[in-house]
Amino acid sequence: MTSLIEKLNHTVAVIKEYYNQKPVAGIVLGSGLGNFKENMTVECEIPYEDIPHFPVSTVEGHSGKLIFGKMAGKTVVCMAGRFHFYEGYSSTDVSFPIRVMKFLGIETLLLSNAAGGMNPAFAVGDLMIINDHISLFAHNPLLGPNEAALGPRFPDMSEPYSVELINIAQQVAAAHSIPVFEGVYVGVTGPTFETKAEYKMLHILGADAVGMSTVQEVIVARHMDLPVFAISVITDLGIREENNIITHQEVLEAAAAAEPKMTAIFKGIIAAL
Ligand code: HPA
Q: Atom 6 in ligand 1: which residue has the minimum CA distance?
């Protein structure tokens, strides 16, 4: 059986045949946030199906490409489309591309997602910098034998989101007059949106926003000691009036509308790296 490290080395060797510059940052684009590449000088695009050991994204709104290029003068790699646990992938599959980007040389990971707001101060279209998370995923991606060459058996999670990167993001947001909240993201499996009772419970548990991605990627990044910044676009409100039905279409539209604000923050962070 091929080990995880052998798979990573194989994947990285194939990617380097397409593009051989070391990216300083890796970016993951959430649902409806796929236009980010308009802000990059794109140098190479590799469809996921051409990358060995990569799962293939199935969700509408995810284009499924690894994009290399320049942003703010730095070399970056961007995942347009991510893998979700609800698609049927294992937690190891979902987080595999994060390990690949680390093996390609990234020193910082920037994640974005669409999330449901539960903090009553939030409105659709707001941005929330994630300063902590609660993982309610069925599977931690580090379950199973530990690859000591990748990271420790029992990783510390006292600061999953780099305070230094959060401070940079706050300065960038202030400089661009972009209002941002900070808060706790709870990761759930989906694919159902939450019931009213579930939104209420998740808020009582201490979460400000809920989504179906990100936490497994963060766990794997922290396992490898990779600094993480993550931001949620609030695409719907969970704490809501009667008959407020949430649709995937509404999530995609709200994310697309908020994308320029998120892009400005990512660009500012990359410029500061
Ligand atoms: N719940 C879970 N995931 C989500 C939501 C939500 O309300 N909005 C966007 N992703």
A: 116
